[in-house]
Amino acid sequence: MALEPQDVQRAAHLARLGLDETDADRYVDDLTRILEMADQLQAVDTDGVAPLAHPLDATQRLRADEVTETDQRERFQRNAPAVENGLYLVPRVVE
Amino acid sequence: MHDMTLTELARALEAGEFTSRQLTESLLARVERLDGDLNSFISVTAEQALAAADAADAARGRGEAGPLTGLPLALKDIFCTQDVRTSCGSKMLDNFVAPYDAHVVEKLKTAGTVSLGKTNMDEFAMGSSNENSYYGPVKNPWDLSAVPGGSSGGSAAAVAAGLVPAALGTDTGGSIRQPAAFCGITGLKPTYGRVSRYGMVAYASSLDQAGPMARTAEDCALLLSAIAGHDLRDSTSVARGVPDYRAELGASLSGLKIGLPKEYFGDGLDPAVESAIREAVKVYESLGATVQEVSLPHTHHAIPAYYVIAPAEASSNLSRYDGVRFGHRCDAPKDLEDLYKRSRAEGFGDEVKRRILIGTHTLSEGFFDAYYKKAQQVRRLIRQDFMDAFEQVDVLMGPSTPTPAFDLGANKDPVSMYLQDIYTIAINLAGIPGISVPAGAVNGRPVGLQILGPHFAESQLLNVAHQFQQVTDWHQQRPAFGKENA
């Protein structure tokens, strides 16, 4: 199934990945070939086969709803590009 | 010292032949002298290594040494190491200093090991050649014009070149086993859930698994015993006891039933590699094993299934790199959308972007059923193939890779690179364990034999690998690179 540049742009927008036109064109071919490879899966009869999300077919373990973590904000924020008063700074979102 | 296995080094340290400090200094000097040509390390942590070595020697002096005390190793740069840069081979995390240790790092520290540093890798574990690293490609010590394999190429090259006796790698589609094969060392991918993924930067959460890379199965067994086990902090880690993985190494292989999947001996397999593998199988027959052909009918659907599932999971896992809380941030973002888009465009390399785009596309509305759900259904069939085969045989064997290491720059096309993973990739989809052991060489480039077992059969796999290494010497070969003149 061939991809158009706008399919690539749409995926890029959903993934919040900046992509200019030259990049988008470059990826169209690669991604088309990967999807063509993925299309081979259509040949497999999967009627009545349940999807396998976890290789051991396990379900998510649960635990008691109790606070067990301690506040380590300062430590974790050492890697932040911009913080103030313990808050991460980003460009203005709300006018 | 650099030629010795972990097991031999442990004995030598215990016997007082040298101290951990002396051993560490010697290896650090080797890294300094040789790694410029290999590029296997991203960060060398010399100060921390020497401090750990001194602590290990002190512990030994107090009579408190354990099986791993004072042994040097290296860690793929995908494992969070407290106060040490953890880059995942990416510009996105070039400035990231991990605030905590991964579970496996904690376990290895507690066991008294000495980490020399963080090894190079394909960016975010996406690649099969270690040519996708922000920090440049890694070379294969057997032939500097060849790739070491990937994504754990740095770990493989460092062990093969005798810079460290062992290293940790990770394996999502073959990233321990394939570089182990290309570099002539032994590498094990444990059963999914055997080793905690806490602190191991996620690529594909239902496929990723950490594992040991060393010269021998015995060394891998030693390391696996140290890192395996339940961890509450990884909800996919299995609550199952950890045996001493060395306990059954010596068991006889008489009566062992080996299956050779016919799909692993078809088109695309280099005849010289096939020849080496069939010789290896004959060795097993001489040890008392029987061999039969089996079939894994969905083998050729494993690559498309993986290249739908893994990128889909990656697109989700890598959405955390948003320039807000850590990692690369673009300069002077105009607004939030610009912050996200430019930080991510600048921080990620081509292969990572390709996989994020494919993953996003196949998860998006209108495509989810045809691609992602379909791939998961095929995944169940792939796993069933293995489970059916293990009703007839104890282990499966075949080549780890279709060819020996290829030249740097040889596989420019993404899809041809993906086809490299043909023998390794289904194993991650099924969650079963697999080990690659050195079994030959073609034009000076090593060949790996892959041995597969049912879920949680690591003891048997290690035993089967170890017995091969008792009667062959492929694992004792050393590249000319870095050979010291005695």
From TrEMBL, chain A:
GO molecular function, one term: glutaminyl-tRNA synthase (glutamine-hydrolyzing) activity
Catalytic activity: L-glutamyl-tRNA(Gln) + L-glutamine + ATP + H2O = L-glutaminyl-tRNA(Gln) + L-glutamate + ADP + phosphate + H(+); L-aspartyl-tRNA(Asn) + L-glutamine + ATP + H2O = L-asparaginyl-tRNA(Asn) + L-glutamate + ADP + phosphate + 2 H(+)
Keywords: ATP-binding, Ligase, Nucleotide-binding, Protein biosynthesis, Transferase
Keyword Hydrolase listed: no
Enzyme Commission numbers on file: 6.3.5.-
Subunit structure of this chain's protein: Heterotrimer of A, B and C subunits.
Family designation: Belongs to the GatC family.
Function summary: Allows the formation of correctly charged Asn-tRNA(Asn) or Gln-tRNA(Gln) through the transamidation of misacylated Asp-tRNA(Asn) or Glu-tRNA(Gln) in organisms which lack either or both of asparaginyl-tRNA or glutaminyl-tRNA synthetases. The reaction takes place in the presence of glutamine and ATP through an activated phospho-Asp-tRNA(Asn) or phospho-Glu-tRNA(Gln).
The protein's name: Aspartyl/glutamyl-tRNA(Asn/Gln) amidotransferase subunit C
Lineage start: Bacteria, Pseudomonadati, Pseudomonadota, Gammaproteobacteria, Oceanospirillales
